[in-house]
Structure formats: C-alpha cells, structure tokens
C-alpha cells in the first residue's frame, strides 16, 4: 500500500473569504463631466438658434445698415438746422421732404423722357427694321422682307414660351414690387429715427462706456458723418457735371435720347468707381454707332478725355475735403463690399472705407520719410 502525503495548499490561490480590492478612483466619471456636456450642448443649441435668427433677420439688418449710412449722410444738414433753433424732428422731416421732392421730380422727369423715347422708338421701329433688312440683303445677297420677318417672329416658339412665362410671372413681379416698397419704407423710417434721435442715440451708446472710450466713439461718429455726407454730396455734384457735359456732346452729335443717356452716364459713372465711366459710355456709343460709326469714335474719345479730366482736375478739387480715396482702394472696396453684402455692400463700401481711413489717419502716427531715391516719384 502506497502512502501519499497531502499536498500543501497554494498560498497564491485566491481566498474567497478576503474582500476584493476597491476599484480605482480614476476609473469613475468626474463629477464635472456631465455638467460640462450639458453646458456644451446648451452652447451649441444657442449658437444654432443665433445662426437661424441671424439668417432670418439678415434682410432687416441690411436695411438698418443702409438707414444708418443714410442718416449719417443727412446729419450735417439736420445739425445745421438744429443749431439755428429748429427741433431735430422737424429739421429731419424737412430734409426728408426735400430729398423726396427732388427724387420724385428726377424719376418723373426720367420716366417721362424714357416714355417719350420708347414711344418714338416704337413708332420708328418699322423704318429701323427696313433699314436693317436692306443692309442684310445688300451685304449677304438675300431677299428678306419685313412681312416675312414679322410673321416668323410672331409665330416662333420662343416668343410663345416667353409670353406664357411672362404671364405666369406677373404675381412674382407684383410681390417683388411690394417687397421693395416695404423695404424702402423700412429704410426711410429707421433713417428718420437715427437722424432725429442722433444725440439721444449717441448718449445711450456712451452711457455704457468709460469716459476715454466715449471720446473715441464720438470722434469716430464725427468722422463717419463727415465722410459719408461728403461722399454723397461730392458724387451728386460730379454726376451733375458729367451728365451736363455728355448731354452737350450727344446733343451736338444729334444722338437720339440725349437727355436720358446723359442721366444714365452721370449716375453710373459716379456711383461705380474707376470703371463706371466706361460702362456708362457703352450705351451712348452703341446709339451713336446707329447714327454714324464715326460718332461712336467721337463718343469714345470724349469719354476717355473726360475721365482723365475728372480724375486729375475735377475730382481732387471736389473731394479734397471729403473722401480723398485712391481709385484702386475705392475699386477694391466696392468689389469686397459686393462679395460680402451684394448691392448693399457696393453702395456703402466707399463711405465705410473712407470712414475707416479717416479714423486710422486720426490715430496712426506717421513719421518723415528719409531722403532715399527708392521712395522718390521723379528721377533721382
């Protein structure tokens, strides 16, 4: 019989009677993590809500921005009338009344001229068409007639499709017109309040700022008023001069629709910087070409010469104390404003740039430049 000794129990075996070690304190979720997650979700929700609200109110914000610059433009006239003892509300109303009367008269005159020119064009359209058909027959050896051309145009598929789409878009056009009138009313209302309550608005803004910041804000506001008003007044004056000069030329050459073309050239050439004169001169050149091809050359030469006269003689004298901006800076500001805000950005780009330039010029310290040939404009 084989005797076996009992095997000793392994000391390394786990004992069920001993308690398991407590879990590591680092494995627990920190107490601040749930609150941080809730705060992050709340901030994200607030950001989404703010982005949605901004997207819905972008039209109103743009109208307020236009109204603010319009109020800055009429601020000098309102302040001058208020300094003589007139109430700001009454002074603002008189300024708006004068602007409305001038604008209504301008558009009435322009509309009547355009209506007369359109009636004349419609009455003379058969003769224009006959001359074009004769030129085509003589040049290309064809045998076209006005009756054939009219019949082919009236029975064409594209004309019928165009008439159907135009009839279906009448409601859209009406809605667009009503929306434009509402936006115009909104701009006028806000600009009236901004101009009439200008001192109260500045006082409310300065009340939340320390005294040093108040002086800087008031100085910036004054610069904005000066630059914006100066820009509009100087551009209106140069538009008048440009329109009169081009009207005299077109009238001498016998180009049709000279008054309407002169108004077109004056407005487009001044409120579209740098290239506005050439864009505005394209339409008079086209109509002058229909009268005589050499007349188009005369119009082109006059446009080029007048642009140089305006850049180097007229504009420096008029804008010396208002908005002296380099043409490249003006053109770049318009392009940037159009890319950011569309037509509104193009409208307010130059006064905003002039305001920023004036503000920086008032606070940026400049030094005398050393006498170095590399910074001289002329020969060394």
Provide a descriptive summary of the structure in words.
- The protein is 78% helix and 0% strand.
- The protein is mainly α and 380 residues long.
- It has 2 domains: 57-149 and 183-208, no CATH class; 213-364, no CATH class.
- Helix 8 (211-253) runs antiparallel to helix 9 and helix 9 (258-271) runs antiparallel to helix 10 (276-291).
- 19% of the residues are buried.
- The mean pLDDT is 78.
Overview in brief:
The chain has 380 residues and is mainly alpha-helical.
Keywords:
380 residues, transport, transmembrane, AI-2E-like, mainly alpha, AI-2E family transporter, 78% helix
SSE topology:
Elements: H1 32-56, H2 58-83, H3 88-140, H4 146-154, H5 157-168, H6 170-196, H7 198-206, H8 211-253, H9 258-271, H10 276-291, H11 293-318, H12 327-341, H13 343-363
Helix pairs in contact: 2-3, 2-6, 2-8, 8-9, 8-11, 8-13, 9-10, 10-11, 12-13
């Amino acid at each position: 019989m084989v005797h076996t000794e009992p095997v000793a129990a392994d000391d390394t075996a786990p004992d069920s009677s001993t308690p398991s070690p407590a879990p590591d304190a680092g494995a627990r979720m920190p107490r601040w993590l749930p609150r941080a997650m809730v705060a992050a979700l709340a901030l994200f929700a607030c950001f989404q809500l703010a982005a949605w609200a901004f997207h819905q109110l972008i039209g109103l914000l743009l109208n307020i921005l236009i109204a603010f610059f319009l109020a800055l433009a009429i601020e000098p006239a309102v302040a001058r009338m208020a300094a003589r003892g007139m109430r700001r509300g009454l002074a603002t109303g008189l300024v708006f009344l004068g602007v409305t009367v001038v604008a209504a008269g301008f558009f009435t005159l322009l509309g009547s001229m355009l209506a007369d020119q359109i009636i004349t064009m419609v009455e003379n359209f058969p003769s224009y068409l006959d001359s074009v058909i004769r030129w085509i027959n003589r040049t290309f050896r064809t045998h076209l007639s006005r009756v054939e051309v009219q019949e082919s145009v009236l029975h064409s598929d594209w004309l019928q499709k165009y008439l159907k789409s135009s009839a279906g878009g009448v409601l859209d056009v009406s809605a667009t017109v009503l929306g434009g009138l509402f936006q115009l009313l909104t701009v006028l209302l806000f600009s009236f309040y901004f101009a009439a309550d200008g001192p109260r608005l500045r006082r409310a803004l300065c009340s939340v700022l320390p005294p040093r910041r108040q002086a800087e804000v008031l100085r910036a506001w004054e610069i904005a008023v000066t630059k914006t008003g100066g820009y509009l007044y100087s551009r209106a004056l140069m538009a008048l001069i440009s329109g009169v000069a081009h009207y005299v030329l077109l009238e001498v050459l016998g180009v049709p629709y000279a008054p309407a073309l002169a108004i077109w050239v004056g407005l487009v050439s001044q409120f579209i910087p740098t290239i506005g004169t050439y864009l505005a001169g394209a339409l008079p050149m086209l109509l002058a070409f229909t009268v005589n091809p050499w007349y188009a050359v005369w119009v082109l030469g006059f446009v080029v010469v007048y642009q140089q006269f305006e850049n180097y003689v007229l504009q420096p004298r008029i804008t010396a104390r208002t908005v002296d901006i380099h043409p490249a800076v003006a053109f770049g500001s318009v392009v940037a404003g159009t890319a950011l805000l569309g037509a509104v950005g193009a409208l307010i780009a130059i006064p905003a740039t002039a305001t920023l330039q004036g503000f920086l010029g008032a606070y940026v310290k400049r030094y005398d430049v050393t006498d170095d040939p590399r910074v001289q404009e002329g020969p060394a």
